[in-house]
Design brief:
This protein is mainly α. It has a domain of 68 residues. The protein has a two-stranded antiparallel ribbon. The chain is flat. The two termini are 44 Å apart.
Length: 138
């Protein structure tokens, strides 16, 4: 729906004699469009009321793409599930290179992938903290 709206706005802008994307070029920081509190038909005002502060976990839940890229459905190599799998494998390789992981096993069965590195793991006294609080690690 947003794509259709953007297309309709671009056509309307062209009909008025200006390209829809030309407002955003320049780089002077002067804004344009609805920024600065002005809102025209169909546009949302961007002002102090639009700014919100989220706690760390809420931010991750609402802005997942900032952390893992696109969510996707697993049909594209850039989907977040592959980014997370790569991170797990990278951590396993790091453990192995440092000499604390004796071997790495990766098994795939259908849509399920299991990675085991026989490394140090998370100390048992900190497992809950490490899996439930952002920016917790060693």
């Amino acid at each position: 729906m947003a794509k259709a709206t953007a297309t309709a706005k671009a056509k309307a802008g062209a009909a008025r004699g200006r390209a829809g994307s030309s407002r955003r070029s320049g780089g002077t920081g002067s804004g344009g469009g609805s920024r600065g509190g002005r809102a025209s038909r169909g546009e949302v005002a961007y002002d102090e009321k639009a700014i919100q502060t989220l706690d760390a976990l809420e931010h991750i839940r609402l802005r997942t793409g900032m952390y893992i890229g696109r969510l996707g459905d697993g049909s594209n190599p850039l989907d977040g599930i592959y980014v997370m799998l790569k991170e797990v494998v990278d951590n396993s390789v790091d453990e192995f290179i440092m000499g604390v992981g004796k071997k790495i096993e990766i098994h795939r069965e259908g849509p399920t992938v299991e990675v085991r590195d026989y490394g140090r793991g998370i100390p048992l006294g900190k497992v809950v903290d490490c899996v439930s609080q952002i920016n917790t690690g060693g």
